[in-house]
Amino acid sequence: MESLRARMPAPQYRLLMDVIRMWAENGGGTVRLRMDEEERELFTRDVQREMLHIMGLIGALRPGHEDRADHVVADLGDGEHARGALTLVPPEVAADPERLRTMRDELDAKADRRKRDEAAVEGIARASGMLPEPEPGADTDSGGDGGGERA
User: Fold this and answer.
1) Residue 98 belongs to what domain range?
2) What is the pTM of this model?
3) H helices of the chain, where?
4) Domains in the chain: how many in total?
5) Nearest to 32 by CA among 40, 23, 24
6) CB 47 within 8 A of CB 12
7) Does 150 fall in a domain?
8) pLDDT at 64 over 50
């Protein structure tokens, strides 16, 4: 962690530590991040890669999961709905394009379902008067996760 602190700009390091702390406090797993514009600029691909490495190392501390320390970050590429997804996988999975494509397709399908579900819930909220109608010509897509979902 000290080498990261020395290499990274202080604002990026603080953001990384905040995300790792939130992830750990919530028991690990998938985290949905809502970030403002400044945070999104700081949350670069390099920061995301470091985040996944740290998550893998922390996960390897759990009994029965020691092999996670050897996991590598893999770029799943872009799907129709999920863009730029990174994941932590065993080296043999990272070396198998078909498995990575399958993972991306599954993530893409989940992103599509989530987007449709959010639109349905928003429609119900608007119809029931819980949300105001959008201004004409306003962008009604808030981006959903505000900066990306990483697992």
Assistant:
1) 2-131
2) 0.69
3) 2-7, 10-25, 37-42, 45-59, 91-94, 97-127
4) 1
5) 23
6) yes
7) no
8) yes
Residue pLDDT, tens place only, 104-121: 999 889 888 988 998 899
Q: Is 116 exposed, middle or buried (0-12, 13-18, 19+ CB in 10 A)?
A: exposed
Asked if residue 120 is part of any domain, the answer here is: yes
Tokens 């949350």 belong to residue: 43
Cα distance between residue 52 and residue 10, in whole Å: 19
Collect contacts of 106-110 with beta carbons under 8 A, ≥24 apart: 107/76, 107/79, 107/82, 107/151, 108/79, 108/80, 108/81, 108/82, 110/82
Is residue 109 assigned to a domain?
A: yes
Contact yes or no for 50/16 (Cβ under 8 A) = yes
Count of C-beta atoms within a 10 Å radius of residue 132: 8
Q: Counting beta carbons within 10 angstroms of the beta carbon of residue 133, is it exposed (0 to 12), middle (13 to 18) or buried (19 or more)?
A: exposed
How far, in Å, CA of 67 to CA of 59, rounded?
A: 9
Structure tokens at 95: 């070396």
Q: What do you get for the CA distance between the two ends of the chain, in Å?
A: 20
Spatial contact of 58 and 21, defined as CB atoms under 8 Å apart: no
